[in-house]
Design a protein that fits this description.
The protein is of the alpha/beta class. About 35% of the residues lie in helices and about 30% in strands. Strands 7, 8, 9, 10, 11, 12, 15, 16 and 18 form a nine-stranded mixed β-sheet that branches. A seven-stranded parallel β-sheet has the order 3-2-1-4-5-6-17, sandwiched between helices. Strand 13 and strand 14 form a beta hairpin.
Length: about 400
């Protein structure tokens, strides 16, 4: 049916690759490309014989547009799945434009020299993708991704107007390390140490990092401390959800993580400003990433569950309504199935599903789209089929 070129071979990419190989009816061929080809080759060796999907590998520098263009022309994929770093979104989009191939990612662009992630850079590609007759699907992970599909689903089936959305991301997994991050340490720490913000009455309200804290009783997990962060899907949901008055994003953090992070911040280890060290320019946060455990190595150590979902309030047929839709994912079950912890799993599975929607032509149309702009129903069905079943409640505990 279709061929995917998957750029990246980290934790999320490895899950998406496993899932494409499970779904060989749709993905009869994949090419795995990364800066480090040996990682791609090792994964190919692990999967061959367990799947009907034909797997090839390649070496590519995702910052180099001519290299990417040459690879896309050689592979001739139906879709390029960008599962590399958010810094590389624009170079990969440029290469897709030049070769007229559909594009997908899981996180929006941010420049390396400033921890500022927003959609403006990728939205600027809308006209060019439209003229080229190809589709770019932005944010096909979990948050952004599934959380935005949840919003589209709520809007389609349960509300005439949605007034508030609270996106709640709880990871109650324990990996046994005093301090480690569940996805790329550089991206994770940039995100967490940045100022928080939420959308209210048509504008952004900025907060200090970790300034707003709530305690929430998560289904199947229990009470956890969660903190308000800036998160990218707020920006697109504010445009695409009718009647919206407020959107907030909360993520749980344990005390050990916060204590370590504050200490690292205080001594300058989370800085993204280059410093001179023994005649070399190094970025402290990149050095810190090098000494922290690789998130892809946490799988066998991590126990516990994640719970990620959205609570909506609004109006249906003139009456007020509440609705909570969420997924609970078990770290150990994920490791048993695909060799990863649940944070990679919850991002990698929706990446495969989004690609499937485009390859099968279920979602189509030239241009650049956020995931909530398409029909949510086939995606919601696929979540249940491919390992991320969702649950719903019409009387949830609310966040004040």
């Amino acid at each position: 049916m279709g061929k995917a070129l998957i750029i990246g071979c980290g934790g999320v990419a490895q899950v998406a690759i496993h899932k494409c190989c499970q779904n060989s009816e749709v993905f009869d061929e994949i090419c795995i490309a990364s800066r480090t080809k040996s990682k791609c080759d090792a994964l190919k060796k692990e999967l061959e014989g367990k799947t009907k999907t034909k797997i090839t590998t390649a070496q590519v520098d995702a910052n180099n547009v001519p290299e990417l263009v040459a690879l896309i022309r050689e592979v001739k994929p139906d879709i390029v799945m960008n599962l590399a770093l958010p810094y590389q979104d624009l170079t990969i989009m440029d290469a897709c434009l030049e070769t007229k191939v559909n594009y997908l990612d899981t996180a929006n662009y941010e420049p390396e020299d400033t921890a500022k992630f927003e959609y403006k850079w990728q939205w600027a590609y809308r006209d060019r993708f439209k003229e080229a007759g190809i589709t770019a699907l932005l944010g096909s992970g979990f948050d952004p991704g599934v959380t935005s599909v949840f919003a589209a689903y709520a809007q389609k089936h349960y509300f005439d107007e949605i007034h508030t959305i609270d996106i709640l991301d709880c990871n109650a997994g324990d990996h046994g390390y005093p301090f480690a991050t569940n996805f790329n340490p550089e991206i994770n720490i940039r995100e967490v140490s940045a100022k928080g913000s939420y959308w209210e009455d048509g504008h952004w309200v900025e907060t200090e990092p970790m300034e707003i804290k709530r305690v929430y009783n998560f289904p199947e997990i229990g009470e956890k401390d969660m903190y308000l962060l800036h998160h990218e899907e707020i920006e697109s949901l504010a445009l695409n959800i009718k009647g919206i008055k407020r959107i907030r994003f909360f993520m749980t953090f344990g005390q050990s993580y916060l204590t370590h992070l504050k200490c690292l911040e205080n001594v300058g280890m989370t800085s993204i400003e280059p410093i001179d060290y023994e005649g070399h320019q190094i970025v402290p946060l990149q050095f810190l990433k090098a000494v922290l455990p690789d998130p892809a190595s946490l799988g066998p150590r991590t126990k516990g569950k994640t719970n990620i979902g959205c609570i909506f309030t609004g109006i249906k047929d003139g009456k007020e309504r509440k609705y909570y839709v969420y997924n609970v994912c078990d770290h150990e079950a994920c490791y048993k199935e695909v060799g990863s912890q649940a944070v990679s799993y919850t991002t990698g599975v929706p990446a495969m599903i989004g690609a499937m929607m485009l390859v099968k032509g279920i979602w189509k149309g030239p241009g650049v789209f956020n995931i909530e702009e398409f029909d949510p129903d086939p995606f919601m069905d696929a979540l249940n089929k491919w390992g991320l079943p969702w649950k719903e409640s019409f009387d949830p505990e609310m966040v004040d």
